[in-house]
Amino acid sequence: MQAPPKGGTPWNWGFAGDDWNGVDASGRPWRCLSGLRQSPINVPPLSVRRDGLLSSVLNLLGSGGDETNEIPRNLRTSWFYPRLVSNGSNVEVINNGHTIQAEWLSPFAADVQIAVPALQFNTATVTAVLSMDAYDPAVRVRATPLQFHFHATSEHALVGRYFPLEMHIVHRVTGLPACDAAGGCIMVTGVLFELGSGGDNPLLEAIWEAMPLREGAINFLRAGADIRLGDLLPPLSARNYVTYEGSLTTPPCSEGLLWHVFLQPQTISQAQVGVYGTCDKATGDTYICRLRPNKEGVRVWMVSAACLRVTTAA
């Protein structure tokens, strides 16, 4: 999850983030080196209930490791993204020099909801759900998707394993008084991609077709092409995820973000990874293998899809 370029201290990936010591456009110090809740993280092996509900996750992540809380069913995030169809001028694909990003210029009627404490509604932030339990009165607020972008290789790791690609869907929560006062709180959904054996991922084809290869370029998604974000998420029956309080992964590395990382990777072809890696090669810089070291010691919470009541499609 990156910050938009707004001035401040220039930065690059030359030292994998170890030299990110600067200020933002308003003069506030970055949190990259001093923050205690920084992203990305290496998702640790999860010691959770072994009653069969989480067997698929345990098989993926291995047994043992840190104890992880499980989010109660009534407090879990829900995602619904309708099909977004391009009219030739309402969806931009942007090469901003740090990632490839897609933004929509027309309303996108998504329905993404997070839980917050009802009794502390006026002061609650977007990460308040992480301190709630099943008996706390809760209300749900909407998180509006703003854009999505990609990182290659992945920023998050699962028990030390990185993936060829990671997608971040960035949302702003503005239905909370504390968030409205701060200009909106940020929630991010992370989707990992692994190499598949079945050819290109058709859900990525339109974006890859419009992908600008040079920094600063913007292309429109061709008319009639569509984006199906809901289909890029794991199916509801396998929608296991971890959630934690983290940060932007590029300067100013602001903290207080609510992160979700799905544990079942989607697929991408080697050819699609190769196309992504050609971005900005003319300047001698590529998006491949840009990694900021993972942060350890961050507490994560677990959600098992086996506990979810499947009532809607996404």
TrEMBL record:
Entry-linked InterPro entries = Alpha_CA_prokaryot-like (IPR041891), CA_dom (IPR001148), CA_dom_sf (IPR036398), Carbonic_anhydrase_a-class (IPR023561), Carbonic_anhydrase_a-class_CS (IPR018338)
Q: For the Alpha-carbonic anhydrase domain, which residue ranges apply?
A: 11-305
EC number(s) of the enzyme? 4.2.1.1
Please tell me whether the keyword Lyase is annotated for this protein.
Answer: yes
Q: Name one GO molecular function term.
A: zinc ion binding
SMART domains named in the record: Carb_anhydrase
Pfam entry (one): Carb_anhydrase
Zinc recorded as keyword: yes
Q: Which cofactor names does the annotation list?
A: Zn(2+)
| Catalysed reactions, as listed in the record | hydrogencarbonate + H(+) = CO2 + H2O
Keywords noted in UniProt = Lyase, Metal-binding, Zinc
Q: Which family does it belong to?
A: Belongs to the alpha-carbonic anhydrase family.
Function text: Reversible hydration of carbon dioxide.
**Full protein name:** Carbonic anhydrase
What gene name is given for the protein in this entry? PLESTB001058
